[in-house]
Amino acid sequence: VQLVESGGGLVQPGGSLRLSCTASGFSIERYLMNWFRVPPGKEREFVARSVGGSTTIADSVKGRFTISRADSENMFYLHMDSLRPDDTAWYYCNAVRFSNDFWGQGTRVTVSS
């Protein structure tokens, strides 16, 4: 079982990135899928969630970030627009179903000019 995030990097303020989460060893189809982030020196923050066809986006990123999933491809995405310096963080993919709680290793996003 593995989750692997990719797509992070350095981007200028106002820019965009798409993070990908690739799942292997299980099917994400019936899983609640989350994106979390850990800003430098801060606690983990909820970013967005997808489950059962519905999505929840944190207020701090609402209107700028969206999520999507391709269950048939075992992929989960975070689309980030209008990035700001305070979006700088490690971003983590998380899959939850019953007692299963899987995490990726994270991908780093740095928003800076």
Total strand segments:
11
Q: Strand pairing plus helix content: what structural class?
A: mainly beta
Q: Hey, roughly how much beta strand do the residues contain?
A: over 45%
How much helix, percentage-wise, in residues?
Answer: under 10%
Low-pLDDT parts are none
The radius of gyration is 13 Å
Which overall shape is indicated by the principal axes computed on the Cα atoms?
Answer: globular
Number of helices: 0
End-to-end CA span: 37 Å
Biggest sheet architecture: 7 strands, mixed
Q: Helix and strand succession?
A: EEEEEEEEEEE
Report the average pLDDT across residues: 97
Structure, described:
With 113 residues, this protein is mostly beta strands. It has no helices and eleven strands. Strand 9 and strand 10 form a beta hairpin. 30% of the residues are buried. The model has no long low-confidence stretch (mean pLDDT 97).
What's the helix and strand layout?
Blueprint: E1 2-6, E2 9-11, E3 17-24, E4 32-38, E5 45-51, E6 54-57, E7 65-70, E8 75-80, E9 89-97, E10 100-103, E11 107-111
Parallel strand pairs: 2-11
Antiparallel strand pairs: 1-3, 3-8, 4-5, 4-9, 5-6, 7-8, 9-10, 9-11
Main features:
113 residues, four-stranded antiparallel sheet, single chain
Give a brief outline of the structure.
The protein is mostly beta strands and 113 residues long. It is built from no helices and 11 strands.
